[in-house]
Amino acid sequence: MTIATESKVRAVKRKADSPWKSAWRRFIRNPMAIAALTMLTVIVLFSFVGPFFSPYKDARITVKNANQPPSAEHWLGTDNLGRDVVLRLMQAGQISLLVGLMATGVILLLGGTIGLVSGFYGGWVDSIFMRFADIMFAIPTLPILITFGAILSDLKFPPDRRIYLVMLIIGLISWMGLSRLVRSQVLSLKEQEFMLAAEALGLRDRRKLFAHLLPNIIPIMIVSGTLGVAGAILLESALSFLGLGVIPPTPSWGQMLSAANNMVDFSKRPWLWIPPGVMILITVVSINVIGDALRDAFDPKMKR
Amino acid sequence: MFQYIIRRLMESVPTIIGASIVIFLAFSLAPGDVITANYTGGMNLTEERKAELRELYGLNKPLPERYGLWMGHVLQGDFGQSYLYNKPVTDVIKTFVWNSFLLSATVLVLQWMLALVIGVFSAVRQYSLFDSLVTVLVFVAMSLPSFFLGLLLLKLFAVDYRIFPLGGMTSTGVDYQGLQHILDVAYHMALPVLTLTLLSIGGTTRYFRMTMLEVVRQDYIRTARAKGLKERVVIFKHALRNALLPLITLFALELPGLFAGAIITERIFNWPGIGRVTLDGLYQRDYPLMMGFTLIIAFLTILANILADVLYGVADPRVRHR
Amino acid sequence: MRKRWYVLLSLVLVFSLTLVGCGSKPSSSPATENNAQQGDGGTDSTTPESSDQPETGYIKAKQPELVPEAAKKRTDTIVIGMDSPKGVFNPWFYKTAYDGYVVDMIFEGLGKVGKDGLVEPDLATWEMKNDNKTFIFHLDPNAKFSDGTPVTAEDAAFSFYIFLDPSYDGLTDMSIAKIVGADAYKNGNATTIEGIKVLDEHTLQVDVEEVNALTIRYLTVPVLPKHYYGKEFKKGDLSGVKKLNEQPLGSGPYVFEKFVPSQEVRLKANENYWRGNPPKVQNLIVKATNDETKLQMLQTGETDFEEGISVNRDNLDQIDAMGFLDRNMLLNNGYGYIALNHAHEPLNDRLVRQALMYGLNREEVVYAYSQGLAEVIDVPISKVSWAYPDEKDIIHYNYDPEKAKQLLDEAGWKLGNDGYRYKDGKKLTLHFTASSPNPVNDALVPIAKENYKDLGIDFIAEQLDFNAMVQKMEKGDYDMAFLAVSLTPDPDPSQHFHSNGADAKQVFHYSNPEVDKLIEAGIKELDQAKRKEIYQQLFKLLNEDVPYIVMYQRYNMNVISSRLKGFEGEITPFYNFVNALPNVEIVQY
Question: Are B206 and A223 in contact (CB < 8 Å)?
């Protein structure tokens, strides 16, 4: 009896307040979420606006200043070409943030959609999509990327913007894992009571997909998404091994990290690798906290 | 179910053909070949010799013919000769793949066991100190590239405190037998296993936490709790079993990786695995080796995905394969 | 057989995850030298005086008593650390320098490259007859393979049949030697090579169509036992020979014992070594190590010797700090350079090329890449070569932006209002292709961008995979690209600078009739003194003509535990450590 009223009340409330609005309200009431959002904003500002305030933005390379430890002039020291690490960190942020979000965005969009459709419709749709995914799994990433890099080079595509296209391609060839995860989730959701009810009510496919299935796969998308951002930021640095990363002197966090890949820099020059490491960490943790909060906000069952 | 398996296996035939074409094209269209890879700034290979070598390797034939020749041999179990190792591709793969497998399989077991425990506890105590701490640690491990973690562990445990060796798979210059050999390998494995486990555990933990969180909110868990069942029983008997379901797919996705090797970690720890071999093969454009190995991995991926779907159907009676 | 001339440089690129080694006493200005101290900031352990001490050559350890216990325990074994050999232990087929080292331990050839880079007798001595077109090799009658069978002329002849086999895919191009009948055997139906004749058990005759200074380098082939390798040999099918790559058998000072892929190669002293002086230390292990932990391997005593440690200030400091390590630092027989595409305007203009040379702060690039431990060079030949011209005869292109601007003005490229130079309405734009990963490019690209912008050049850099870059260069679709080259002990630069050379023709599109003439004269000349004269002239000319921008010459370094004695003075840029190994002893402190 009470349960019935409660749900009635909730239903009424929902009508009065769109689910988006109530989710938003729940979201901003979450202090962790606000803190994370602030951190992320700070990092974005630091990366995109920060360089304008750096006294070194027009500095020339002075090799004789190489590898200086942190000091009053260079708060985080200098790198092997005598460049200010703080400024490099800001410039690197622009690349890493964009790159991380782009690749992840493509993966979520493609993987989510294909998994959803494949699991929901089943049958030959499922067969075609999943066999296509199997073939995509077979694509060897490295040679494909090398070829793509060569094509961009032949087309004389501006070198400093190639990285974005490369990340797009990476997104295009890495959605399969997520699509399989989403699909399997949908397969079992499809047979749950609420979906059977939706079926019985004769709801349209679109309604079933977006109103009922999508919210239930959001959690897995969030986990994959946050893991994906971290992965993509680090992957970017690995791309330089294929001649596909950002072109020097443009930095990225991942590259700043991997530039210090020997025991000496490791133990003697922590200012070279701790700052970019911390930036990646803060970014990823913030995105993750925001993701968790979003999920909670959209979850009607959550008590908080 | 039996019918379903048969159907999937039959579907695999066109899939693997498609995969083989994709693999073949990916490698043969990539710029450069084994001859450009041997380009030394030009002090040794004359133009005539380059043309001669390309002819010898059949690299000057039209693509469809090259594909036909390759597939023809592959179907007879012959993956060709590796340019770099000067011996059959299958021999090269056999030499290294099991070392990688040993490492990866150990890591996989550790990773899933630990992730299960950590993931479940973080989910049950969502937003507790433990959960937050684990979350941050997970992301710390993920924000560091593998070579960093590897170097850090080496510096600590092999240089500063000489507890573990600096690398390799066996002790230099000795041939241990039996138990002694096993212990020796285990001793050399410790650091690479630790590195890879730390690197991979993060993601898995997050997935465990996610699925557990989903499940503990379900009505039947509430029912179980309402019935007055002990929390431990609720979590491990009712919740965990259901939380594991979606992870079957994830697990299957990781299976082919058991044979793929870990490029950076194997390199840093001098582990004689297939990962380093394939990176070498790529730089040297050792097509027969690369194509053969990639094809095998593609085949394993397809099998693993069939396995996942079948297991999923078995484990979750609600899912019907039609 | 100890010919390093077909060893790959690309190797370095294979695992270019790691830095390419480099370094030594800076040749650059004293100012740069001082910066070396500042450069490392507070972490630098060297004192200002220490940089005045000689750094190159063989430097002995200061505290040999610090040799780690783990190493001391090995009383009859030397462990050599290097990048992993691939297991192609066969002088005909090996491709990596590391397989090459193992090959050198096990095999010998008719001749070998000596300390000065010239070919000298090894298993055989030779004489030339018939207007120098006939070579008679006299094999040492005492020479024996490690299984006790004598080394014969048949065995030596067999090598030619392998190199000239239609299915031979190794790196030696024997057709260059122009042996009589080689083509008929390789591309025709001939069952024997006409120019290879076994005169008696220990005498081999080789006839060539024409002779030049390089012929003897090709003819001094490695000698392998035919009774062992030839069992399954058929013309056109070398698979039976390749099968034995992992079970080598030769006449050298060491015998092969065991190969554990990517881990170690075990060798034993050849007790029956025919020269009568088997190696002093019984066991030799080649252990696979990687650049990240090579020094730590020495530090913990897991290895006694490291074949290649990158030369930079950090590594030298670490080595000195450990106290018990000797090091031997020698200039590399090779150099790094920026290739120029002469088919593209304005790179066909000598003035522009000289401007590019003057206008690039090469000292700074080299300093950044090696922490001041590599040498800037101005001539496309190694300083260790006998062909290197006298320093005072050559132009030193020290960084001089004003001179560079002046040269560009002279060439007709005038500064426009936008800060870039124009000629006939065309902007001065140069596309630079950098292979990645490459530590030189990491320093070169940012500095070149700045320097060339100052001159009014629009310098556009892009990164590519190494093979993709090479393919692009072969297509002629580039202006500038950074490469490094390993030179052969012989200084002949035909491939790079003769208008018919593979690279000059296909990649650089460089042609200079005067250069051609000198190169041709240099190859034909058999008299060493006269050859030297010709090459000095040639390289002076190349120094002035700037066919490409030569950058630097790096150093190679062997690092040796002081418990090993016998390497000092025995290694040259042409003559690697393997030659010294048999005489090395273990000393206890």
Answer: yes
